[in-house]
Amino acid sequence: MKKAFFAFTIIALLVILVAIPSWCQIAAQTVTLTNVKGIVLIQKLGATQWNPASDGMQLTMGDAVKTGKDGSVKIEFKDGGTLTLQKETDIKVLRAEEKEKTTQTEVDMKIGKLRAQIQKLKAGSKFDVKTPVSVATVRGTTYDLFVYESNGQIYADMNVVSGDVWWSNMDNSMGYTVGEGQGSTANQTGQITEPQGSPENADQNMGGGTTGGGGDNQFNQSTTSDQEQIGGQQGYSQDTYGSQNSASGSPIETHDSHCDGGGT
Known about the structure:
- By secondary structure, this protein is mainly β.
- It has one domain: Jelly Rolls.
- The protein contains three helices and 18 strands.
- It has helices spanning 2-23, 224-234, 258-261, and strands at 26-28, 31-37, 40-43, 51-52, 58-59, 64-67, 72-77, 82-85, 90-99, 102-118, 126-130, 135-138, 141-150, 153-162, 165-168, 175-178, 182-187, 196-197.
- The chain has an 18-stranded mixed beta sheet that branches.
- A hairpin with a 4-residue loop joins strand 7 and strand 8.
């Protein structure tokens, strides 16, 4: 009886030891800054100061990046995805992990404009960009995302250049598949406009404006020219990782509690 119990114990230990490596194979993805231009600042997880960014800097989960009035930067992920931040944009890396052959990426975007170019991901992988009012889920897509404030309300415009995006509100109770050349807008009441546009509109929106979501939609939000003024003249009135100086466009050294703990 004792021998049988001993043998069972040994087998159980061996099973646990074999399983441990699979538990421990979750590792951080490599996330690198490139094409840094103008004012670009980085705040490391747990830090209170924003410091100038430079090409080759690496981000880890919980780090935040923001651009000034003349700033832009490309963020490259190991899974092949890139985010190109335009001026006056704030993002935070919530998750950047790889396990075996899959990757899990989540980015929080507070305000501004970016272009996401996401290569076709392997099964089980995901790349989500979250805004205060929406979530963009993709596996192989190029799209532009514009988050702004108008009349005290937060909006997010999605415009797809290639592929398609599952575009939903924060609790996923409403959403649409936005296809190539289409656009849609989300607002903070949880509403998402039906996608508008067609493939011939693709890749025409990064310079300003939207193809389907902004301006003339059911939310009665501001026009494109009004939206551009929010970033260029009025500054930011909502809370961001680091607020902007509306007079000069230069970042103010402020601390946001979101950057202490890696969650939102």
